Amino acid sequence: MTWVIALSIIIVVGLIVIIILSRRLATPPHKAAGDAGEDAAASVIKRVLHKGDKCFRNVPVLYDGQETELDFLIVNSSGVFIIEVKNYSGEIRGRDDDKYWEKTKTSQGGNAYVKRIENPIPQIKREEYLLGKFLRSEGIRVWVKGYVFFIRCNRPFRNRYLLNSGNEIDREIHQQTDRELSGETIKRIIEGLDL
Question: pTM to 2 decimals?
């Protein structure tokens, strides 16, 4: 009878291992890199948050039939901030108005591989627009600022939308403005987004 219990435990453990491994193998490499980048960004963002800052991850936004998901949403007395995370390896080249950028990666054997990637600036502008419109539809008039955070510190150029470090995130989300948000407005934003 004990061997039946032991065999049952071995089978259950084996099935759990198979399920875990199959999920890891089923995740496309770009999705796995994106998830790893978001996890790394979460620890960077956590270090720069101040008391009273509210931070949310993977926030869905739907406005007028258009939807998006915000990697990170930070709400504090300084404003409403979106952080879109990019975990690109290699050297990134492009300009702010290019539709595509080039990502060059060099293998251990010295071979350079070039891949075209979409410029993330239009993506963050769209996220700013949708979140701003959604909040206004809820009667909340606030300025929304979006940023693209390059977790590997390899942004292609300086731009108001592109961030490379935790210090830059800290500076952007804690700027003093003449439009400071009240605790009541922050509460309404969080409730409006059902967070």
Answer: 0.81
